[in-house]
Protein backbone atom coordinates (compact mmCIF):
# COMPACT_ATOMS: atom_id res chain seq x y z
CA UNK A 1 0.00 0.00 0.00
CA UNK A 2 1.38 3.40 -0.96
CA UNK A 3 2.23 6.00 1.67
CA UNK A 4 0.61 9.45 1.47
CA UNK A 5 2.29 11.98 -0.82
CA UNK A 6 5.45 13.63 0.49
CA UNK A 7 3.65 16.95 1.15
CA UNK A 8 0.51 15.45 2.68
CA UNK A 9 -0.72 17.54 5.59
CA UNK A 10 0.59 20.85 4.26
CA UNK A 11 -1.93 23.59 3.58
CA UNK A 12 -1.32 25.86 0.58
CA UNK A 13 -3.42 28.97 -0.02
CA UNK A 14 -3.17 29.69 -3.73
CA UNK A 15 -3.91 33.23 -4.95
CA UNK A 16 -2.15 32.65 -8.29
CA UNK A 17 -3.48 32.88 -11.82
CA UNK A 18 -2.44 32.34 -15.46
CA UNK A 19 0.63 30.05 -15.45
CA UNK A 20 3.76 30.38 -13.27
CA UNK A 21 1.99 30.39 -9.91
CA UNK A 22 -0.63 27.78 -10.88
CA UNK A 23 2.11 25.49 -12.22
CA UNK A 24 4.00 25.84 -8.94
CA UNK A 25 0.94 25.07 -6.80
CA UNK A 26 -0.22 22.30 -9.14
CA UNK A 27 3.09 20.54 -8.51
CA UNK A 28 2.65 20.95 -4.75
CA UNK A 29 -0.83 19.46 -5.08
CA UNK A 30 0.55 16.55 -7.11
CA UNK A 31 2.86 15.83 -4.17
CA UNK A 32 -0.05 15.64 -1.77
CA UNK A 33 -0.44 19.16 -0.36
CA UNK A 34 -3.95 20.44 0.30
CA UNK A 35 -3.99 23.33 -2.17
CA UNK A 36 -6.92 25.71 -1.94
CA UNK A 37 -7.27 28.01 -4.94
CA UNK A 38 -8.86 31.35 -4.07
CA UNK A 39 -11.11 32.47 -6.91
CA UNK A 40 -13.68 35.09 -7.82
CA UNK A 41 -15.79 35.48 -10.94
CA UNK A 42 -13.69 38.38 -12.26
CA UNK A 43 -10.39 36.58 -11.71
CA UNK A 44 -11.62 33.33 -13.22
CA UNK A 45 -12.66 35.16 -16.38
CA UNK A 46 -9.12 36.47 -16.75
CA UNK A 47 -7.41 33.16 -16.01
CA UNK A 48 -6.90 31.92 -19.55
CA UNK A 49 -5.09 28.76 -18.47
CA UNK A 50 -7.66 27.49 -15.98
CA UNK A 51 -9.11 25.13 -18.58
CA UNK A 52 -5.61 23.82 -19.34
CA UNK A 53 -5.63 21.95 -16.03
CA UNK A 54 -3.14 24.16 -14.21
CA UNK A 55 -5.60 24.10 -11.30
CA UNK A 56 -6.19 20.37 -11.19
CA UNK A 57 -5.84 18.51 -7.87
CA UNK A 58 -6.81 21.68 -6.00
CA UNK A 59 -9.86 22.70 -4.05
CA UNK A 60 -11.60 25.93 -5.07
CA UNK A 61 -12.94 28.55 -2.70
CA UNK A 62 -14.83 31.59 -3.96
CA UNK A 63 -14.21 34.79 -1.98
CA UNK A 64 -15.03 38.37 -2.91
CA UNK A 65 -11.68 39.94 -2.04
CA UNK A 66 -12.94 43.40 -2.92
CA UNK A 67 -14.85 43.46 0.37
CA UNK A 68 -13.35 43.91 3.80
CA UNK A 69 -15.22 40.84 5.04
CA UNK A 70 -13.80 38.79 2.17
CA UNK A 71 -10.29 39.94 2.99
CA UNK A 72 -10.88 38.95 6.62
CA UNK A 73 -11.93 35.43 5.58
CA UNK A 74 -8.79 35.14 3.45
CA UNK A 75 -6.66 36.40 6.36
CA UNK A 76 -8.18 33.77 8.65
CA UNK A 77 -7.30 31.08 6.14
CA UNK A 78 -3.76 32.50 5.91
CA UNK A 79 -3.43 32.25 9.69
CA UNK A 80 -3.71 28.44 9.49
CA UNK A 81 -1.90 27.96 6.16
CA UNK A 82 1.63 26.67 5.72
CA UNK A 83 2.28 28.31 2.37
CA UNK A 84 0.83 31.19 0.35
CA UNK A 85 1.57 31.53 -3.37
CA UNK A 86 0.70 34.60 -5.43
CA UNK A 87 1.93 35.98 -8.74
CA UNK A 88 0.29 39.39 -9.05
CA UNK A 89 2.15 42.62 -9.71
CA UNK A 90 3.79 44.00 -6.61
CA UNK A 91 1.03 46.23 -5.25
CA UNK A 92 -2.04 43.97 -5.57
CA UNK A 93 -1.78 41.89 -2.40
CA UNK A 94 -0.80 44.94 -0.39
CA UNK A 95 -3.96 46.76 -1.51
CA UNK A 96 -5.99 43.73 -0.41
CA UNK A 97 -4.26 43.68 3.00
CA UNK A 98 -3.04 40.18 2.14
CA UNK A 99 0.68 40.84 1.70
CA UNK A 100 3.24 39.11 3.91
CA UNK A 101 3.63 42.07 6.28
CA UNK A 102 -0.10 42.04 6.96
CA UNK A 103 -0.41 38.27 7.46
CA UNK A 104 2.84 37.18 9.12
CA UNK A 105 2.04 38.54 12.64
CA UNK A 106 -0.82 36.05 12.92
CA UNK A 107 1.17 33.10 11.57
CA UNK A 108 4.85 32.89 12.49
CA UNK A 109 5.26 29.68 10.45
CA UNK A 110 3.86 31.14 7.23
CA UNK A 111 5.94 30.70 4.07
CA UNK A 112 4.82 33.32 1.56
CA UNK A 113 6.15 33.43 -2.02
CA UNK A 114 5.54 36.08 -4.66
CA UNK A 115 6.23 34.88 -8.22
CA UNK A 116 6.07 38.15 -10.14
CA UNK A 117 7.67 38.94 -13.48
CA UNK A 118 10.32 41.34 -12.18
CA UNK A 119 10.23 40.99 -8.38
CA UNK A 120 8.67 43.25 -5.75
CA UNK A 121 11.63 45.61 -5.38
CA UNK A 122 13.66 47.68 -7.80
CA UNK A 123 12.83 49.82 -10.82
CA UNK A 124 10.96 47.08 -12.72
CA UNK A 125 8.65 45.98 -9.88
CA UNK A 126 5.53 47.56 -11.41
CA UNK A 127 6.17 46.40 -14.96
CA UNK A 128 3.64 44.07 -16.54
CA UNK A 129 5.22 40.84 -17.69
CA UNK A 130 4.44 38.06 -20.13
CA UNK A 131 6.57 35.22 -21.43
CA UNK A 132 7.44 36.99 -24.69
CA UNK A 133 8.63 40.29 -23.22
CA UNK A 134 10.60 38.47 -20.50
CA UNK A 135 12.41 36.48 -23.18
CA UNK A 136 13.14 39.70 -25.04
CA UNK A 137 14.37 41.57 -21.96
CA UNK A 138 16.70 38.76 -20.85
CA UNK A 139 18.33 38.61 -24.29
CA UNK A 140 17.29 34.97 -24.61
CA UNK A 141 15.64 35.56 -27.98
CA UNK A 142 18.97 36.52 -29.53
CA UNK A 143 20.58 33.29 -28.34
CA UNK A 144 18.13 30.91 -30.01
CA UNK A 145 17.45 30.24 -33.66
CA UNK A 146 19.96 30.53 -36.50
CA UNK A 147 22.31 33.34 -37.45
CA UNK A 148 20.44 35.90 -39.53
CA UNK A 149 17.04 34.97 -38.12
CA UNK A 150 14.93 37.60 -36.36
CA UNK A 151 14.78 37.25 -32.55
CA UNK A 152 13.31 33.82 -31.83
CA UNK A 153 11.34 32.91 -28.71
CA UNK A 154 11.30 29.55 -27.00
CA UNK A 155 7.71 28.38 -27.10
CA UNK A 156 5.70 26.73 -24.33
CA UNK A 157 5.84 29.55 -21.76
CA UNK A 158 9.50 29.10 -20.89
CA UNK A 159 9.63 31.79 -18.21
CA UNK A 160 6.50 30.53 -16.46
CA UNK A 161 7.87 27.01 -16.14
CA UNK A 162 11.29 28.26 -15.06
CA UNK A 163 9.72 30.65 -12.54
CA UNK A 164 7.39 27.97 -11.21
CA UNK A 165 10.21 25.44 -10.82
CA UNK A 166 12.41 27.94 -8.98
CA UNK A 167 9.43 28.72 -6.79
CA UNK A 168 9.10 25.05 -5.83
CA UNK A 169 12.81 24.90 -4.96
CA UNK A 170 12.52 28.02 -2.79
CA UNK A 171 9.46 26.66 -0.99
CA UNK A 172 11.17 23.34 -0.29
CA UNK A 173 14.20 25.13 1.17
CA UNK A 174 11.94 27.30 3.35
CA UNK A 175 10.11 24.20 4.58
CA UNK A 176 13.43 22.55 5.47
CA UNK A 177 14.60 25.67 7.33
CA UNK A 178 11.30 25.84 9.21
CA UNK A 179 11.90 22.41 10.71
CA UNK A 180 14.82 23.87 12.71
CA UNK A 181 13.72 27.48 13.17
CA UNK A 182 9.98 27.05 13.54
CA UNK A 183 9.63 30.23 11.48
CA UNK A 184 8.41 30.87 7.97
CA UNK A 185 9.71 33.54 5.61
CA UNK A 186 8.91 35.76 2.68
CA UNK A 187 10.29 34.75 -0.75
CA UNK A 188 10.44 37.40 -3.48
CA UNK A 189 11.01 35.64 -6.81
CA UNK A 190 11.62 37.40 -10.12
CA UNK A 191 10.82 35.36 -13.23
CA UNK A 192 13.12 37.69 -15.14
CA UNK A 193 16.04 36.80 -12.87
CA UNK A 194 15.18 33.10 -13.08
CA UNK A 195 15.44 33.31 -16.85
CA UNK A 196 18.71 35.27 -16.68
CA UNK A 197 20.12 32.57 -14.39
CA UNK A 198 19.46 29.89 -17.00
CA UNK A 199 21.51 31.73 -19.63
CA UNK A 200 24.15 32.92 -17.18
CA UNK A 201 27.10 31.13 -18.80
CA UNK A 202 26.34 32.67 -22.21
CA UNK A 203 25.90 36.13 -20.73
CA UNK A 204 29.16 35.84 -18.81
CA UNK A 205 31.05 34.66 -21.89
CA UNK A 206 29.63 37.55 -23.86
CA UNK A 207 30.60 40.05 -21.15
CA UNK A 208 34.18 38.74 -21.11
CA UNK A 209 34.60 38.55 -24.89
CA UNK A 210 32.59 41.65 -25.73
CA UNK A 211 30.85 39.65 -28.45
CA UNK A 212 27.24 38.55 -28.84
CA UNK A 213 26.86 34.80 -28.23
CA UNK A 214 26.68 32.96 -31.56
CA UNK A 215 23.29 31.63 -32.62
CA UNK A 216 24.02 27.99 -33.29
CA UNK A 217 20.62 26.71 -34.37
CA UNK A 218 20.89 22.91 -34.14
CA UNK A 219 24.66 22.86 -33.88
CA UNK A 220 26.85 22.65 -30.78
CA UNK A 221 29.64 24.88 -29.51
CA UNK A 222 31.67 21.80 -28.50
CA UNK A 223 30.63 18.75 -30.53
CA UNK A 224 30.66 18.12 -34.27
CA UNK A 225 28.89 17.02 -36.27
CA UNK A 226 25.56 17.66 -34.63
CA UNK A 227 22.22 18.39 -36.22
CA UNK A 228 18.82 17.27 -37.41
CA UNK A 229 18.85 15.48 -40.75
CA UNK A 230 16.11 14.66 -43.31
CA UNK A 231 14.92 11.09 -43.68
CA UNK A 232 12.75 9.18 -46.14
CA UNK A 233 9.15 10.35 -46.10
CA UNK A 234 7.44 13.70 -45.80
CA UNK A 235 8.97 15.99 -43.15
CA UNK A 236 10.75 13.15 -41.35
CA UNK A 237 13.96 13.75 -39.39
CA UNK A 238 16.62 12.21 -37.19
CA UNK A 239 18.82 14.05 -34.68
CA UNK A 240 22.38 13.04 -33.82
CA UNK A 241 25.41 14.27 -31.89
CA UNK A 242 29.02 13.12 -32.18
CA UNK A 243 30.82 13.74 -28.89
CA UNK A 244 33.90 11.52 -29.02
CA UNK A 245 36.52 10.41 -31.52
CA UNK A 246 35.15 6.87 -31.22
CA UNK A 247 31.71 8.05 -32.23
CA UNK A 248 33.22 9.99 -35.13
CA UNK A 249 34.96 6.85 -36.42
CA UNK A 250 31.73 4.87 -36.05
CA UNK A 251 29.77 7.51 -37.98
CA UNK A 252 32.29 7.66 -40.82
CA UNK A 253 32.17 3.88 -41.18
CA UNK A 254 28.36 3.84 -41.05
CA UNK A 255 28.23 6.46 -43.81
CA UNK A 256 30.68 4.45 -45.89
CA UNK A 257 33.06 7.42 -45.85
CA UNK A 258 36.28 5.87 -44.54
CA UNK A 259 38.17 8.64 -46.31
CA UNK A 260 36.93 11.03 -43.65
CA UNK A 261 39.10 9.24 -41.09
CA UNK A 262 42.27 9.98 -43.04
CA UNK A 263 41.35 13.60 -43.64
CA UNK A 264 43.33 15.89 -41.31
CA UNK A 265 40.69 18.58 -41.73
CA UNK A 266 38.27 16.37 -39.80
CA UNK A 267 40.57 14.94 -37.14
CA UNK A 268 39.15 16.92 -34.18
CA UNK A 269 35.80 18.32 -33.18
CA UNK A 270 37.10 21.86 -33.63
CA UNK A 271 38.35 20.96 -37.11
CA UNK A 272 35.06 19.29 -38.02
CA UNK A 273 33.19 22.43 -37.03
CA UNK A 274 35.05 24.29 -39.75
CA UNK A 275 33.69 21.84 -42.31
CA UNK A 276 30.26 21.26 -40.84
CA UNK A 277 28.36 21.95 -44.05
CA UNK A 278 30.34 19.29 -45.92
CA UNK A 279 29.63 16.79 -43.16
CA UNK A 280 25.96 17.77 -43.04
CA UNK A 281 25.63 17.03 -46.75
CA UNK A 282 27.22 13.58 -46.35
CA UNK A 283 25.06 12.69 -43.36
CA UNK A 284 21.87 13.93 -45.08
CA UNK A 285 22.64 11.85 -48.17
CA UNK A 286 22.74 8.77 -45.92
CA UNK A 287 19.69 9.59 -43.76
CA UNK A 288 17.47 10.40 -46.77
CA UNK A 289 17.63 6.75 -47.78
CA UNK A 290 16.14 5.53 -44.49
CA UNK A 291 13.16 5.99 -42.27
CA UNK A 292 13.79 7.96 -39.06
CA UNK A 293 13.36 4.83 -36.92
CA UNK A 294 15.83 2.83 -39.05
CA UNK A 295 18.40 5.62 -39.10
CA UNK A 296 18.15 6.12 -35.34
CA UNK A 297 18.44 2.40 -34.69
CA UNK A 298 21.57 2.03 -36.81
CA UNK A 299 23.19 5.10 -35.26
CA UNK A 300 22.39 3.95 -31.73
CA UNK A 301 23.72 0.45 -32.48
CA UNK A 302 26.99 2.07 -33.54
CA UNK A 303 27.19 3.94 -30.23
CA UNK A 304 26.19 7.35 -31.61
CA UNK A 305 23.61 9.39 -29.63
CA UNK A 306 20.65 9.71 -32.00
CA UNK A 307 16.88 9.69 -32.02
CA UNK A 308 14.10 10.16 -34.53
CA UNK A 309 12.12 13.39 -34.41
CA UNK A 310 8.70 12.56 -33.01
CA UNK A 311 5.49 14.54 -33.24
CA UNK A 312 3.69 15.53 -30.05
CA UNK A 313 1.05 12.84 -30.60
CA UNK A 314 3.80 10.23 -30.91
CA UNK A 315 5.23 11.23 -27.54
CA UNK A 316 1.86 11.23 -25.76
CA UNK A 317 0.81 7.85 -27.16
CA UNK A 318 4.14 6.05 -26.75
CA UNK A 319 4.49 3.50 -23.95
CA UNK A 320 7.99 4.82 -23.16
CA UNK A 321 6.57 8.15 -21.96
CA UNK A 322 6.49 6.48 -18.54
CA UNK A 323 4.26 7.89 -15.85
CA UNK A 324 4.38 11.48 -17.11
CA UNK A 325 1.01 11.22 -18.84
CA UNK A 326 -1.75 9.98 -16.58
CA UNK A 327 -5.44 9.45 -17.38
CA UNK A 328 -8.27 11.34 -15.75
CA UNK A 329 -11.91 12.12 -16.40
CA UNK A 330 -12.93 15.69 -17.17
CA UNK A 331 -15.90 17.42 -15.54
CA UNK A 332 -17.86 16.56 -18.68
CA UNK A 333 -17.09 12.86 -18.33
CA UNK A 334 -14.53 12.74 -21.14
CA UNK A 335 -11.36 10.65 -20.80
CA UNK A 336 -8.17 12.69 -21.14
CA UNK A 337 -4.48 12.68 -20.33
CA UNK A 338 -2.54 15.17 -18.20
CA UNK A 339 1.21 15.68 -17.81
CA UNK A 340 2.20 15.07 -14.20
CA UNK A 341 5.40 15.14 -12.18
CA UNK A 342 8.18 13.32 -14.08
CA UNK A 343 9.49 11.29 -11.14
CA UNK A 344 8.50 8.73 -8.57
CA UNK A 345 8.91 9.24 -4.84
CA UNK A 346 9.67 5.87 -3.31
CA UNK A 347 6.62 4.43 -1.61
CA UNK A 348 4.87 7.80 -1.41
CA UNK A 349 2.02 8.14 -3.84
CA UNK A 350 1.67 11.15 -6.12
CA UNK A 351 -1.89 12.40 -6.29
CA UNK A 352 -4.28 10.98 -8.85
CA UNK A 353 -5.15 13.50 -11.55
CA UNK A 354 -8.33 15.35 -10.66
CA UNK A 355 -9.97 17.80 -13.06
CA UNK A 356 -10.19 21.45 -11.91
CA UNK A 357 -13.15 22.00 -9.64
CA UNK A 358 -15.82 24.51 -10.49
CA UNK A 359 -15.24 27.92 -8.91
CA UNK A 360 -16.28 27.81 -5.28
CA UNK A 361 -17.14 24.10 -5.37
CA UNK A 362 -15.19 23.48 -2.16
CA UNK A 363 -15.92 26.72 -0.30
CA UNK A 364 -18.00 25.17 2.46
CA UNK A 365 -15.67 22.18 2.91
CA UNK A 366 -12.56 24.37 3.14
CA UNK A 367 -14.12 26.72 5.68
CA UNK A 368 -15.17 23.74 7.78
CA UNK A 369 -11.80 21.95 7.47
CA UNK A 370 -9.48 24.92 7.92
CA UNK A 371 -11.51 27.29 10.12
CA UNK A 372 -14.06 24.94 11.73
CA UNK A 373 -16.89 27.24 10.66
CA UNK A 374 -20.40 25.97 11.14
CA UNK A 375 -23.25 26.12 8.66
CA UNK A 376 -24.78 29.27 10.12
CA UNK A 377 -21.50 31.21 9.86
CA UNK A 378 -20.99 30.09 6.29
CA UNK A 379 -24.60 30.85 5.41
CA UNK A 380 -24.26 34.39 6.75
CA UNK A 381 -21.19 34.99 4.60
CA UNK A 382 -23.03 33.67 1.57
CA UNK A 383 -26.00 35.95 2.30
CA UNK A 384 -23.66 38.94 2.54
CA UNK A 385 -22.07 37.95 -0.80
CA UNK A 386 -18.66 37.59 0.82
CA UNK A 387 -18.46 34.13 -0.71
CA UNK A 388 -18.96 33.78 -4.45
Model description:
The protein is α/β, with parallel strands linked by helices and 388 residues long. The chain folds into 2 domains: 11-198 and 321-383, 3-Layer(aba) Sandwich (Rossmann fold); 226-230 and 237-308, formyl-coa transferase, domain 3 (2-Layer Sandwich), CATH 3.30.1540. Helices cover 39% and strands 14% of the residues. The chain contains 17 helices and 11 strands. A 6-stranded parallel β-sheet has the order 3-2-1-4-5-6, with helices on both faces. A 3-stranded antiparallel β-sheet has the order 7-8-9, covered by helices on one side. A two-stranded antiparallel ribbon has the order 10-11. Strand 10 (325-329) and strand 11 form a beta hairpin. Helix 6 (131-138) crosses helix 8 (191-198) and helix 7 crosses helix 8 (191-198). The longest helix has 24 residues, at 158-181. It starts with 10 loop residues before the first strand and ends in a 5-residue tail after the last helix. The mean pLDDT is 91.
Topology:
Elements: E1 11-14, H1 20-30, E2 34-39, H2 41-46, E3 59-62, H3 68-79, E4 83-86, H4 92-95, H5 100-103, E5 111-116, H6 131-138, H7 158-181, E6 185-190, H8 191-198, H9 200-209, E7 226-230, E8 237-241, H10 245-255, H11 259-262, H12 269-273, H13 276-287, H14 292-301, E9 306-308, H15 312-317, E10 325-329, E11 335-339, H16 363-371, H17 375-383
Parallel strand pairs: 1-2, 1-4, 2-3, 4-5, 5-6
Antiparallel strand pairs: 7-8, 8-9, 10-11
Helix pairs in contact: 1-7, 6-8, 7-8
Amino acid sequence: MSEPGPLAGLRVLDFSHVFAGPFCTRSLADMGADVVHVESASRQAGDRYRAAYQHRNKRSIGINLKTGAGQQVAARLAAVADIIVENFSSSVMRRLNLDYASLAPANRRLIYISLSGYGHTGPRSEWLSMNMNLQAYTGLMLMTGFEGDPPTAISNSWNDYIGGLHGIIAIMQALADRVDSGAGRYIDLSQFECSVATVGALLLASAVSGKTPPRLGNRSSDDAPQGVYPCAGDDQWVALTVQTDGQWRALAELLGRSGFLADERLSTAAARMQHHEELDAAIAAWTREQTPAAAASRLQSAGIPAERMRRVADVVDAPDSGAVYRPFTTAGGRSALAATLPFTFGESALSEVETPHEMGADTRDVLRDWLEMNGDEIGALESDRVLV
